[in-house]
TrEMBL record, chain B:
Name of encoding gene: pal
Subcellular location field: Cell outer membrane
UniProt-annotated stretches for the region Disordered: 27-69
Single GO biological process annotation from the record: cell division
Family: Belongs to the Pal lipoprotein family.
Record field: compositional bias (Low complexity): 27-48
PANTHER family the record matches: LIPOPROTEIN YIAD-RELATED, STATOR ELEMENT OF FLAGELLAR MOTOR COMPLEX
PROSITE patterns: OMPA_1, OMPA_2, PROKAR_LIPOPROTEIN
Function of the molecule: Part of the Tol-Pal system, which plays a role in outer membrane invagination during cell division and is important for maintaining outer membrane integrity.
Protein's recorded name: Peptidoglycan-associated lipoprotein
Lineage, top ranks: Bacteria, Pseudomonadati, Pseudomonadota, Gammaproteobacteria, Oceanospirillales
Signal sequence coordinates: 1-20
Source organism (scientific name): Vreelandella titanicae BH1
Length: 430, 179
């Protein structure tokens, strides 16, 4: 049936490959610090003078951005030990530091060797330490790895500093626009352009193994869903239905993609089998159904529907019955995403102030606004559930912003290159 | 094909009554409109009521008698916040396109639906499609063949103007006739 037609559109295209754009990096501005952040000192690593990256600074920035830590300023460090034996606990206790990271860096034949140790100052003990071998020039990757180890040791939560974000950029206006799809480190650095087009690009979504992106591109002058291998740039057109082909979302097992198609009238939720491209219709009513998201257990879908009037979030259990309405606060709740444990949803809520990122526990229907900005869109949850990245406006420009899941801390990732929007936080990659 | 002016007006008025009755699936249905200029609320899943008089008030007027061999010059019509109702002031524009398309059966139009930037991107894709669908239905009732028309929603992805005030938003909520 549909498969026959679809196979015709299964176009292999190798034209779009990586091209790195040096100026595309996003920078970080901490906009709100948590009052419960743990004081930590990250001492500059010995031997790091002349290295291409300041590893301790990257670690310090990672920890600060998480909202869990309040790093001590370097200027306040009147000692700079590089190994645990040299740490004077009294010195650091007098600075109100609870944890201390010390380390050293060394250039080797094939790259670098980093050693770090994490100290518990009040407990006067060494918590962990490791030697990290860096092949090639990947000091930033090694620094994010060290941040992950420190974060997990102290918080018992897996670190998500080694993950990536995908996002869309737009420049120009009206008929004269340029769109780009980028993949960058979770701190906005090392961005790489993976697609460019003079037609809109929307809704990037990571496959659960982190190797592919599904997204919407208008390059044929109408919307279609494409799947692209992030490493090779190889891509295929996965859908070519009449009307809207939108909002792709991979199932947790990576075999299916939920999406919104309007081929039969108004937008409805469908599930596509990735292997054979067949689609199964999930919703069926006379209203807008879009923005599907999979529950972490793969058994239900969250989606936006205006079946009750304005947009609200509904949950549909696969293979069973009617969709259940989840949101009742206000008259605009859309674009929901589950927390990794499946117990909360993050969404865009229209409050009296505007469109804001909000959280709702699934055990109740109380909704909590998290963001302070008022033109927010596209929330995407970090794989460890600690932060939500989203798009918002700063002045007349679209920027990415992130807020902790508890709303206590936030940061912004401004860009020099036009509007930035539609962020998608990758799964764990290591 | 030439109808006398009175007959044309009657035909237009009749078809408009029909389209008003048909628009029940189209209303954007969000009663409380944050930042909206018009305070009207429909508040239910059908919005067919209340639009008939709006259409009727100016139907058949102002369309002019331009030559149907040329694509009408005005190719953009604008919408109220959260609405897909074709405003009476733009009926003459849509009628002119209907005449052109009827007179030129080989002509093809792609109706591009757009929203302002507020709200979520994929939901706005759906709202932009509703606007373009409303124009397509109107044209169809005016006798334009479905084979001459197609709809593409751009949602909020291609704003006509930048800016975060109502005047910018108003210029971005639009349907564009592309030949």
């Amino acid at each position: 049936m549909q498969t026959q037609v679809l196979k015709k559109f299964w176009l292999l295209c190798l034209l779009f490959t990586f091209s790195s754009v040096a100026s595309a990096n996003l920078t970080i501005e901490i906009t709100r610090g948590s009052d419960q952040a743990l004081p930590i000192g990250v001492v500059p690593f010995a031997g790091s003078d002349g290295l291409p990256e300041d590893v301790a600074q990257i670690v310090q920035d990672d920890l600060e951005r998480s909202g869990y830590f309040a790093p001590l300023a370097r200027s306040a460090m009147f000692e700079q030990p590089s190994q645990s034996d040299d740490v004077q606990f009294g010195t650091w206790r007098s600075l109100d530091v609870r944890y201390l990271v010390v380390g050293q860096a060394e250039q080797t034949d094939g790259g670098f060797e980093l050693q770090f140790e994490l100290m518990d100052i009040s407990g006067q003990r060494r918590m962990i330490g490791e030697t990290v071998t860096v092949r090639g020039n990947d000091l930033r990757g090694a620094a994010h790895y060290i941040s992950d180890q420190i974060f997990e040791e102290i918080t018992d939560i897996r670190g998500a500093f080694s993950t990536k974000i995908a996002y869309v950029t737009a420049q120009g206006i009206g008929d004269d626009m340029q769109f780009g799809l980028y993949v960058a480190d979770a701190d906005g650095r090392r961005s790489e352009q993976v697609l460019t087009s003079d037609e809109p690009i929307m809704s990037p979504a990571w496959s659960p193994d982190g190797t592919k992106l599904a997204y919407v591109s208008f390059e044929t002058e109408r919307p279609a869903i494409y799947i692209q291998d992030v490493a090779t740039g190889q891509r295929v057109q996965a859908t070519s239905f009449d009307g809207i082909n939108g909002a792709p979302a991979w199932s947790p097992d990576g075999r299916r993609i939920a999406m919104s198609l309007s081929k039969d009238g108004q937008p409805e939720i469908y599930i596509m089998d990735v292997a054979n491209r067949s689609v199964e219709r999930i919703t069926n009513n006379n209203s807008i159904d879009t923005e599907p998201a999979w529950a972490p257990d793969g058994r239900s879908l969250l989606f936006t529907s205006d079946r009750s009037g304005g947009p609200q979030l509904y949950q549909y259990t696969l293979g069973g019955g009617e969709a259940q309405r989840l949101t009742f606060t206000g008259n605009y709740n859309a674009r929901g995403r589950f927390s990794p444990d499946g117990e909360q949803i993050f969404l865009i809520h229209r409050s009296s102030r505007g469109y804001q990122v909000a959280r709702q526990d699934l055990s109740g229907d109380r909704l909590v606004v998290l963001s302070e900005s008022t033109r927010d869109e596209s929330p995407s949850v970090a794989p460890n559930g600690t932060m939500v990245i989203f798009a918002t406006q700063q002045g007349n420009s679209g920027v990415l912003s992130a807020v902790s899941a508890d709303g206590r801390s936030s940061f912004r990732l401004p860009s020099a290159q036009g509007d930035v929007r539609d962020p998608a936080w990758s799964p764990f990659l290591n | 094909m030439q109808l006398k002016p009175l007959a044309r007006s009657l035909a237009a008025a009749l078809s408009i009554v029909v389209i008003a009755g048909c628009s029940s699936t189209g209303g954007t249905q969000d009663g409380d409109s944050y930042g909206s200029q018009d305070g009207s609320t429909t508040g239910s899943s059908t919005s067919g009521t209340g639009t008939g008089s709006q259409y009727g008030s100016t139907s058949g007027s102002g369309a002019g008698q331009q030559a149907d061999s040329r694509i009408p010059e005005v190719r953009t019509i604008y919408f109220d916040y959260d609405r897909d109702t074709i405003k009476s002031e733009y009926e003459s524009v849509v009628m002119a396109h209907a005449r052109y398309l009827r007179a030129n059966p080989n002509a093809q139009v792609v109706l591009h639906g757009h929203t302002d930037e507020r709200g979520t991107r994929e939901y706005n894709m759906a709202l932009g499609e509703r606007r373009a669908n409303a124009v397509e239905r109107f044209l169809n009732i005016q006798g334009v063949s479905p084979s001459q028309m197609s709809v593409v929603s751009y949602g909020e992805e291609r704003p006509a103007v930048n800016g975060q005030d109502e005047s910018a938003y108003a210029q971005n909520r639009r349907v564009v006739f592309n030949y």
